[in-house]
């Protein structure tokens, strides 16, 4: 069987088009009702669908502003600084919470890769391998200063479960909650990729940085590409995509907050939903309702946030390489 990626490519005229894709994918994900997540009719811990839409809009504006020609010539222009400034934009505006840290982390190397390709004025048509080779280059050339910016971003985001992932003390010299973390990063000359390697075995977002998005790329090729019609805004397809990802790998945020057993339990419940037919059967819909209720009762501890972020990332890939 031929590798479908051999025939995949995209053709965009500007960085603004790519920024629109990132925004549309994020909006598509959050607009789809999903178990355990904030949605158009589901408020969790005081955070609403409108809050997510507001932050997505602010990030879209920030992305355009950051890649202005004047900013590109600044000594602070880097992926680490971009991540920090994006997170700062998020937490400095209502509802002043960490809503989209994972989304920001996942799309940052992608937008920098596109910018690099576009500024080098390569042929407008970019194939699958060229794009992902550039993403890998962006991640591989991060610096210790990028690592410091990353540590600052994680600190101001107040990300859940960082100190005790899986209800166990973090076993790493590079604890972002330490006041001395910046000095340690400089002394050890740890790049941003090096720092993600410290958590790649239990965090799927970190793993994407260390494997050049292996999970997201393969998930797109194996589970999304074979679909006859593009996902576009089809709610049922996005919800199924979310459930398939949740059933494939334990949610990292649930693991960090609750431990392995709980994360595996949620994963297994998602598998049961898929086996029951997902949203196409009454049995599947009933199981989704039961799972959502269980998650809501946890008051945020069972929020499958990483699964939502991975879903948005796959949607970016789908929209970019849309046949």
TrEMBL record:
Gene3D superfamilies of this UniProt entry? Triphosphoribosyl-dephospho-CoA protein
Which keywords does UniProt give here? Glycosyltransferase, Transferase
Query: What is the uppermost EC class here?
Result: transferase
Q: What is its EC number?
A: 2.4.2.52
Output the Pfam families linked to this UniProt entry: CitG
- InterPro entries listed in its UniProt record: CitG (IPR002736)
Q: Which molecular function GO terms apply here?
A: glycosyltransferase activity; triphosphoribosyl-dephospho-CoA synthase activity
Q: Please give the superkingdom of this protein's source.
A: Archaea
Q: What is this protein called?
A: 2-(5''-triphosphoribosyl)-3'-dephosphocoenzyme-A synthase
């Amino acid at each position: 069987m031929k590798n479908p990626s051999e025939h995949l490519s995209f053709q965009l005229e500007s960085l603004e088009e790519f920024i629109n894709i990132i925004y549309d994918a994020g909006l598509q994900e959050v607009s789809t009702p999903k178990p355990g997540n904030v949605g158009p009719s589901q408020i969790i811990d005081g955070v609403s669908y409108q809050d997510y839409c507001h932050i997505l809009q602010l990030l879209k504006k920030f992305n355009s502003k950051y890649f202005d020609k004047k900013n590109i010539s600044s000594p602070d222009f880097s992926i680490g600084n971009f991540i920090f400034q994006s997170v700062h934009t998020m937490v400095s505006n209502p509802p002043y919470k960490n809503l989209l840290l994972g989304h920001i982390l996942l799309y940052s190397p992608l937008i920098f890769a596109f910018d690099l390709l576009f500024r080098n004025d390569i042929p407008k048509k970019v194939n699958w391998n060229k794009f992902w080779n550039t993403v890998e280059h962006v991640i591989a050339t991060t610096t210790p200063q990028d690592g410091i910016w990353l540590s600052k971003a994680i600190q101001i985001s107040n990300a859940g479960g960082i100190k005790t992932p899986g209800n166990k003390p973090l076993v790493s010299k590079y604890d972002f909650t330490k006041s001395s973390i910046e000095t340690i990063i400089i002394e050890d000359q740890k790049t941003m990729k090096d720092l993600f390697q410290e958590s790649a075995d239990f965090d799927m977002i970190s793993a994407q940085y260390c494997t050049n998005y292996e999970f997201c790329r393969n998930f797109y090729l194996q589970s999304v590409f074979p679909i006859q019609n593009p996902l576009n805004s089809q709610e049922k397809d996005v919800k199924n995509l979310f459930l398939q990802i949740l059933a494939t790998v334990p949610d990292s945020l649930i693991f960090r907050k609750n431990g392995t057993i709980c994360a595996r339990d949620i994963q297994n419940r998602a598998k049961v939903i898929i086996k029951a037919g997902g949203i196409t059967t009454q049995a599947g819909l009933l199981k989704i309702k039961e799972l959502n209720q269980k998650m809501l009762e946890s008051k945020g501890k069972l929020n499958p946030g990483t699964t939502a972020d991975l879903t948005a990332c796959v949607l970016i890939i789908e929209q970019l390489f849309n046949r």
